[in-house]
Design brief:
Layout: E1 9-12, H1 17-20, E2 25-26, E3 35-39, E4 63-64, E5 67-68, E6 73-74, E7 84-102, E8 113-119, H2 124-129, H3 132-136, E9 141-148, E10 154-159, E11 167-175, E12 179-180, E13 182-189, E14 201-202, E15 211-215, E16 239-240, E17 251-269, E18 280-287, E19 294-301, E20 307-311, H4 314-317, E21 321-329, E22 333-334, E23 336-342
Antiparallel strand pairs: 1-10, 2-13, 3-7, 4-5, 6-12, 7-10, 7-11, 7-13, 8-9, 8-11, 14-23, 15-17, 16-22, 17-20, 17-21, 17-23, 18-19, 18-21
Length: 372
């Protein structure tokens, strides 16, 4: 087995964690498909809590059969060997730039040390049947060396350089045992693009490497949720802002596309936003290196809890767009934004494409009926 040394890392002060990692996405969060594959122990609290998208909470006085309830992963004391571990399948394979490790509310039971290793799986079928013992013995590559944690605190660790390899799985170790509330794995998505450069795909998808780089407000939900697949499950997994009171107010979020492309179609989905969609939506595009907006969609009316489809004018499709700015007028919630385009023209719609396809939710036609 090849011996590899973990990359050099620097500690990020608590007040700079958000700013330091704002250009990256959390590859492991459950809303992006991150999940626990196997683990050594979760006697007191389940490991899947590590991947919860929201901040940890405290519930003093709440007890479950194993003891006090904790919003995180907590293992038994005095285990053998001298660490606990879990394998996490990342929601998106990607290169890793750093970590946030949060021990909030773990005051006398936090894990004093942790480390992270990475693994790239080339056979998804093999990964599905691999045993716990086999996962323990794959060729793990050190990513975050053993670092110290404090009780009840957020910790940021930035790698000196992002990893050159992209990883599909990580192994998270706690030494010797204890608890951690949240684990954020910040990095860049290993981009997946069609082999045919003329083929249309969602340029704004997280899987295509797109990230939100600027926003006005994320009071109830972050705009990065707009880049996720599917139609979501409730208002917790979309972009929602505060109610505005000032005349002329708008909210906005800028998406840096994984790759620039020629945009032909736009979809705005307000699923689950039944009483709080925006009145209208404007979308501006920007060519690489330009700050001059190109108006792709102007104050398009949108309704509650449905998909909205828009064609982009042919003369605008000729532009190669690297960023889009989504503007909600005046405020509200959007579940998903799809920006369909191709790397080069003429654009070709692939077989089975979801462009303009309505994927109705069970209550799409009944949610607004009066209840007796």
């Amino acid at each position: 087995m090849t011996v590899t040394i973990a990359p050099v890392n620097t500690v990020v002060p608590i007040e700079k964690i958000n700013e330091t990692f704002k250009q990256y996405i959390d590859l492991a969060v459950a809303t992006r498909g991150g999940k626990i594959i196997t683990l050594s122990d979760e006697w007191f609290a389940e490991a899947k809590n590590l991947l919860t998208p929201t901040a940890p909470i405290s519930a003093p006085g709440r007890f479950v059969p194993t003891g006090a309830w904790y919003d995180g992963w907590e293992t038994r004391r005095h285990n053998n060997p001298n660490y606990d571990w879990c394998v996490i399948q990342l929601g998106y394979a990607g290169t890793i730039a750093g970590f946030e490790i949060d021990t909030s509310y773990f005051t006398g039971n936090h894990s004093p040390f942790v480390s992270v290793e990475g693994y790239t799986e080339n056979s998804p079928a093999k990964a599905q049947i691999r045993s716990h013992e086999e996962w323990a013995n794959v060729e793990w590559v050190p990513v975050l060396t053993k670092v110290a944690l404090r009780a009840n605190a957020r910790h940021g660790f930035k790698l000196e350089e992002p990893t050159k390899e992209h990883y599909t799985h990580i192994r998270f170790r706690m030494y010797p045992d204890g608890g951690v509330a949240r684990l954020r794995v910040y990095g860049d998505v290993h981009q997946v693009h069609p082999e045919n450069k003329n083929e249309l795909y969602d340029l704004a998808a997280a899987a295509a490497g797109s990230v939100v780089v600027d926003l006005s407000d994320a009071h109830y939900g972050h705009p990065s949720n707009m880049l996720l697949p599917g139609r979501g499950h409730d208002m917790s997994d979309g972009w929602e802002t505060k109610r505005s009171r000032a005349p002329g107010h708008v909210d906005h979020a800028t998406i840096k596309l994984g790759s620039a492309g020629h945009i032909t179609d736009i979809e705005i989905d307000t699923a689950h936003y039944m009483g709080n969609p925006p009145k209208t939506v404007t979308i501006e595009g920007f060519e690489a290196g330009s700050v001059t907006p190109i108006l792709l969609l102007e104050q398009a009316p949108v309704g509650p809890h449905r998909q909205h489809f828009f064609k982009v004018a042919d003369d605008l499709t000729n532009k190669k767009i690297a960023q889009v700015k989504v503007i909600m007028i005046p405020d509200g919630g959007i579940k998903r934004v799809r920006v369909w385009g191709a790397s080069q023209l003429p654009a070709v719609k692939p077989e089975g494409s979801l462009i303009g396809v309505r994927q109705e939710l069970p209550d799409e036609h009944t949610w607004n009926q009066k209840k007796n």
